[in-house]
Amino acid sequence: MKLHVARMAYPVTSLGPGQRVAIWVSGCGMRCRGCITPDLWDSSAGRVVDVDRVLQRILALRMPLDGITISGGEPFEQAASLGRLLRDTRAAKPDWSTLVFSGFPYLTLRSGKTGADALLSQTDILVAGPYDRRRPGVHPLAATANQTVHYLTERGAALRNKVESDTVHRADVALGSTGEALLVGIVAEDARSRIHKALVPADTPPAAWMP
User: Fold this and answer.
1) Please, what is the end-to-end C-alpha distance for the chain in angstroms?
2) How confident is the model at residue 1 (pLDDT cuts 50, 70, 90)?
3) Which of 13, 39, 14 is nearest to 28 (CA)?
4) How many Cα neighbours within 13 Å face the side chain of 209?
5) Residue 87: which pLDDT band, with cuts at 50, 70 and 90?
6) Fewest beta carbons less than 10 Å away: which of 47, 114, 159, 188?
7) Residues in Cβ contact with 7 at an 8 Å cutoff, skipping those fewer than 6 apart
8) 3-state DSSP assignment of residue 195
9) 108 pLDDT more than 90
10) Element (H, E) at 109
11) What are the φ and ψ backbone dihedral angles of 69, each rounded to 5 degrees?
């Protein structure tokens, strides 16, 4: 099975509880205004990689991690492949939690008409709903107020207090594979702009940075 993968970062502390490995997939037909990753709307933004190769990369990480977070792009456009990846990761790392971000509303994913079950069945915590820049979020994992957070398993429910007591609008700053700065986290648009202005040298081409 194949995945369109754009990037990976670790350890990430702003996309779920504890220290996590985060994977961004490419390809999203929703194209919400104000999206933090418009560079990942097109599936060609990533590389086509075997699921087993991604799994090997994850399992080769030599650091204490608490889970895996999947973002994008739109993960549920690759539900079968990501479901397989999370299933095999869970088998090798039974103590890890799984967290997935999606622009689809929860009821759409649960309708059984979208092919989402393969990924939903491997997800402990789901953040669902399109990005709506008119409604700023107040939840540590929800970028806008219309988005909903669902604790789908006993493991997910056990992490609820830890998730909801975290700081709102917290982010990590990491380096991408070509040296660009990546803002990793749930951050309001105005705060994103201020952070970028503070971090990006004046002569840096804008295309090299996350919008």
Assistant:
1) 31
2) very high
3) 39
4) 18
5) very high
6) 47
7) 23, 24, 46, 176, 177, 182
8) helix
9) yes
10) helix 106-110
11) -120, 135
Which element (helix H / strand E) includes 117?
A: helix 117-120
Which amino acid is residue 100, in one-letter code? V
Residues, the chain: 211
Helices 79-92/51-59 angle, 10° precision? 30
Beta bridge partners of 2: 50
Q: What is the pTM of this model?
A: 0.86
* CATH number for the domain that contains residue 113: 3.20.20
Instruction: For 5-32, give one letter per residue: b (16+ CB within 10 A) or e.
Output: bbbbbbbbbbbbbeebbbbbbbbbeeeb
If phi > 0 it is left, if psi is from -120 to 50 it is alpha, else beta; for residue 179 that is: left
Query: Would you list the DSSP string of 58-104?
Result: HHT--S---EEEEESS-GGGGHHHHHHHHHHHHHH-TT-EEEEEESS
- 170 pLDDT more than 90: no
Number of independent structural domains in the chain: 1
Give the angle subtended at the CA of 27 by the CAs of 21 and 32, to the nearest 5°.
Answer: 95
What is the rounded distance in angstroms from the CA atom of residue 4 to the CA atom of residue 97? 22
26-82 pLDDT tens trace: 999 999 888 888 889 998 888 999 999 999 999 999 889 999 999 999 999 999 999
76 near 117, Cβ under 8 Å? no
Residue 59 belongs to what domain range? 2-208
